Amino acid sequence: MKALILLAEGFETVEALATYDILKRSHRIDPTLCSIGADLPVVSSQGIKIQAEAILARTDLTDFDMIILPGGKKGVENLKASQDVVSAIWTMLLMDKDVHAICAAPSILCEMGLLNHSRYTCFPGFQSGEGEYSGEGVTNDEGLITGKSMGYTIPFAEEIVRYYFGEEAVEEIRKGTLGR
């Protein structure tokens, strides 16, 4: 299984990299950091330059099972402004593949009308549309996984693993991350 984590200038560092780390530790989901711009280096909201592994405009989405949208106010603004991102989200959904988002990023899905009949969470103040805002740390509505904020990144990533591979897969990750 493969995940594409979209990086736009100003992305939230922990939300992107901790999600990448947890998915990689599952040994079942192969994550790829993907720049939405023309260059592989992308600067996070904390000013950290990350070398992406792919460029969205040159990526075959049929190779991936899900897209993950990290937050970060500026990063989300840049994701929203990218026609390539909007097109990638629609393409994944039309292929019956999943899109997961954390922090301010669920607002992208709200504005696209994709959460109108769903329960979701996001950073307070970024909810909109007709969906049901749960306010929870992580919400999974039939495979639509959303996270509230940076502080919920590990539970968000664990829920992605849990959804596809069950609690046992999450416990395997926790052996290494919690020293069990």
Question: How would you describe this protein?
Answer:
The protein is an alpha/beta fold and 180 residues long. The chain has one domain (2-177): Rossmann fold (3-Layer(aba) Sandwich). The protein has helices spanning 13-25, 73-81, 83-94, 106-111, 153-165, 167-177; strands spanning 2-7, 30-35, 41-43, 49-51, 54-55, 66-69, 98-102, 119-120, 132-133, 138-141, 144-147. The chain has a seven-stranded mixed beta sheet with strand order 5-2-1-6-7-11-10, sandwiched between helices. It has a two-stranded antiparallel ribbon with strand order 3-4. The chain starts with a strand and ends with a helix. The model has no long low-confidence stretch (mean pLDDT 96).
Write a short abstract of this structure.
The chain is α/β, with parallel strands linked by helices and 180 residues long. It has helices at 13-25, 73-81, 83-94, 106-111, 153-165, 167-177; strands at residues 2-7, 30-35, 41-43, 49-51, 54-55, 66-69, 98-102, 119-120, 132-133, 138-141, 144-147.
Properties at a glance:
180 residues, alpha/beta, 7-stranded mixed beta sheet, two-stranded antiparallel ribbon, 36% helix, 23% strand, globular
Shape: globular
> Helices and strands: which structural class?
alpha/beta
- Fraction of helical residues: 25-40%
Give the strand tally. 11
Strand content: 15-25%
The N- and C-terminal alpha carbons lie at a distance of: 26 Å
Instruction: Point out poorly predicted stretches.
Output: none
N-to-C SSE string, H for helix and E for strand: EHEEEEEHHEHEEEEHH
* Number of separate structural domains: 1
Radius of gyration: 15 Å
The pLDDT mean sits at 96
Query: How do the strands line up in the largest sheet?
Result: 5-2-1-6-7-11-10
